Amino acid sequence: MKIAAASVVTLDYVLKDEKGVTIDESAGHPLVYLHGHDMIVPGLENALAGHAVGDNVKVAVPPGEGYGERGEEQPMSVPLDRLPKDIKPEAGMMLDAVGPDGNSVTLWIMDVKPDAVLVTAEHPLAGVTLHFDVTVKEVRAATKEELEHGHAHGEGGHHH
Ligand code: ZN
């Protein structure tokens, strides 16, 4: 079957930046995602639509279809006592927070000061053109439960 909305797709991938430096790779742990649910960057998801098992897809995803442009988010200072008690803040660390609209947002720590941390909602790969080299390993229809949850289950997917 071909990749379309409501497909659960298993991928091997290598992600490189413009200079050919490997940023991330599946390396024996294939990525499993539910197509059409914003689980992977839009540029890669669009490139994969219509492909089938065994296909190799190479795509360069510009920032606008990847993790966004750089410089669109203002850094914010957060007092240390507002951070979860169980973390030791370090630059580059990812934090889950709740935005003013009640939705969860992901923040990255840019800098740690004596009484506060500087955080940004900008993804570390914002502004980077993403070079994906992807092989489709498996395509199957999502189960009803997976569609209700909005993610893939099973090996490589979400565990409850
Ligand atoms: Zn689930």
Task: Describe the structure concisely.
This protein has helices at 42-48, 144-149; strands at 7-16, 22-25, 31-34, 56-61, 76-79, 94-98, 104-112, 116-120, 130-141. With 160 residues, the protein is mainly β. Residues 149, 151, 153, 158, 160 line the site of zinc ion.
Describe this structure in words.
- The protein is mostly beta strands and 160 residues long.
- The protein has two domains: 7-67 and 126-149, Chitinase A, domain 3 (Roll); 76-120, Thrombin, subunit H, CATH 2.40.10.330.
- The protein is 8% helix and 37% strand.
- The strands form two sheets. Strands 1, 2, 3, 4 and 9 form a five-stranded antiparallel beta sheet that branches.
- β7 (104-112) and β8 (116-120) form a beta hairpin.
- The protein starts with 6 loop residues before the first strand and ends in an 11-residue tail after the last helix.
- The model has no long low-confidence stretch (mean pLDDT 94).
- Bound molecules: zinc ion.
- Zinc ion is lined by residues 149, 151, 153, 158, 160.
